[in-house]
Amino acid sequence: MEKERVYRRTAASSLVISLLIWVPNLVFQVASPLWLLIFIIAPIGTAFAVLAKNYWLAAANTVMFFSFFILMAGGYWIQSITDGHP
Fold first, then answer.
1. Which of 50, 68, 78, 85 has its CA 20 to 30 A from that of 29?
2. 3-state class (DSSP) for residue 85
3. For residue 68, with 0-12 CB atoms within 10 Å meaning exposed, 13-18 middle and 19 or more buried, which class applies?
4. Given a cut of 60, is residue 37 above it in pLDDT?
5. CA separation for the pair 22, 35 (Å, rounded)
6. Rounded Cα distance, 50 and 28, in Å
């Protein structure tokens, strides 16, 4: 029971850290290389979420792992709609 709580907290904190890593790039428009840490932190969060049997946290950490590709695709899509060049 105690291990499961520690696993859940670790998975939730890795999700929050992964979200905070994107703040300089998305909010402040500062090209920060910190987003590369997502490829380390998000899989750790996914593993701990699976150990805690919390599949919502596992899915959220997995989405954060692929967030670079999701944001890149969304940016290209918006750019193609607004000015016609991918």
1. 85
2. coil
3. middle
4. yes
5. 6
6. 33
Q: Tell me the torsion sign for CA atoms 49, 50, 52, 56.
A: positive
Cα 51 from chain centre: 19
Model pTM score: 0.83
Q: Are 31 and 76 in contact (CB under 8 A)?
A: no
Q: What are 65's two structure tokens?
A: 């792992």
Alpha helices of 1-86 — where are they, by DSSP H?
2-21, 23-26, 38-51, 55-65, 67-82
Average pLDDT of every residue of the chain: 89
Contact 72, 66 (CB under 8 A): no
Chain centroid, CA 35 distance in Å: 9
The single residue listed with the structure tokens 């998975």 is: 11
